[in-house]
């Protein structure tokens, strides 16, 4: 009981101190109001200005961040991606990119069909001249090499679909035997350098015209210049080349 009475007495003393301090502050404000009110108003105004400035800065950061994201999305829509961006894509995203590039170049009936049971075709469609095509997409690391057996599988898929043109698109390079096999069998082999050109605005038809040229050297650029009178914008250099 003594402890309870002690705690109650302590609480009453604390309240008395708080009430006394509040009363003293109120009296001080009343007595000295004419002297201190400009400072109080100034403090309120400064606090309001600081809050407004913080809100404006925060809004500006949010708007700038949103603008950057919108610009990135717009760049992707118009094809302004780097090969480094392409390297970060999933297999499905890479197939979507290839399908989008085909549509950009005037191809019709373009569909992404990749997945289980795709029968060797990730993208199908028609070239602007009406020929049918199937595309196999391989987003491999730049240290990998496309072997001949993958080109043979694509050739079988071309026969299965009855397509006029088979296209193999990869983020890496073809082995020399696989590149030779592609040329001998009319397969359009789009390696990393030519993918960079395609992604930067070259048309699919222009890649058909220089099929089998280049893979990190100057041959395909020289051939392009002879054909079109200008040099293409160079693709990003392969890592580990």
Assembly level? single chain
Computed CA radius of gyration, to the nearest angstrom: 35 Å
Strand fraction: 5-15%
Number of domains: 2
CATH arch. level architecture of the largest domain = 3-Layer(aba) Sandwich
CATH top level of the largest domain is Alpha Beta
Kindly, what is the distance between the CA atoms of the first and last residues, rounded to a whole number of angstroms? Answer: 87 Å
Largest sheet, spatial ordering of strands: 1-2-3-5-7
Amount of helix: 55-70%
The outline comes out as rod-shaped
In short:
This protein has 241 residues and is α/β, with parallel strands linked by helices. 59% of the residues lie in helices and 12% in strands. The chain folds into two domains: 74 residues; 146 residues, Trna Endonuclease, Chain: A, domain 1 (3-Layer(aba) Sandwich).
Please characterize this protein's 3D structure.
The model is unreliable at 228-241 (pLDDT under 50). The chain has two domains: 2-75; 83-228, Trna Endonuclease, Chain: A, domain 1, CATH 3.40.1350.10. With 241 residues, the chain is α/β, with parallel strands linked by helices. Helix content is 59%, strand content 12%. It has nine helices and seven strands, in the order H-H-H-H-E-E-E-E-H-E-E-H-E-H-H-H. Strand 2 (123-126) and strand 3 form a beta hairpin. The N and C termini lie far apart (87 Å). The longest helix has 45 residues, at 33-77. Helix 5 runs parallel beside helix 6 (176-184). The strands form two sheets. The protein has a five-stranded mixed beta sheet with strand order 1-2-3-5-7, with helices on both faces. Strands 4-6 form a two-stranded parallel ribbon. It has helices spanning 2-31, 33-77, 83-87, 91-104, 148-161, 176-184, 192-199, 204-209, 219-228; strands at residues 108-112, 123-126, 132-138, 145-146, 165-170, 173-174, 187-190.
């Amino acid at each position: 009981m003594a402890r309870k009475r002690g705690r109650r007495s302590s609480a009453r003393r604390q309240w008395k101190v708080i009430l006394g301090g509040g009363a003293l502050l109120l009296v001080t404000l009343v007595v000295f109001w004419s002297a201190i009110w400009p400072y109080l108003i100034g403090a309120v105004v400064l606090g309001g200005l600081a809050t407004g400035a913080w809100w404006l800065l925060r809004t500006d950061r949010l708007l700038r961040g949103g603008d950057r994201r919108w610009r990135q999305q717009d760049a992707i829509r118009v094809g302004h991606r780097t090969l480094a961006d392409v390297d970060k894509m999933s297999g499905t995203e890479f197939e979507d990119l290839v399908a989008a590039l085909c549509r950009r170049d005037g191809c019709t009936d373009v569909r992404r069909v990749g997945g289980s049971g795709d029968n060797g075709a990730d993208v199908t469609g028609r070239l602007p001249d009406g020929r049918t095509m199937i595309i196999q997409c391989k987003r491999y690391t730049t240290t990998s090499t496309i072997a001949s057996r993958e080109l043979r599988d694509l050739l079988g898929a071309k026969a299965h679909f009855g397509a006029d043109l088979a296209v193999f698109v990869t983020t890496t390079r073809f082995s020399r035997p696989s590149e030779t096999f592609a040329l001998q069998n009319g397969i359009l082999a789009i390696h990393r350098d030519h993918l960079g050109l395609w992604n930067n605005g070259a048309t699919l038809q222009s890649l058909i015209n220089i099929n089998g040229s280049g893979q990190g050297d100057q041959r395909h650029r020289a051939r392009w210049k002879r054909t079109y009178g200008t040099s293409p914008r160079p693709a990003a250099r392969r890592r580990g080349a």
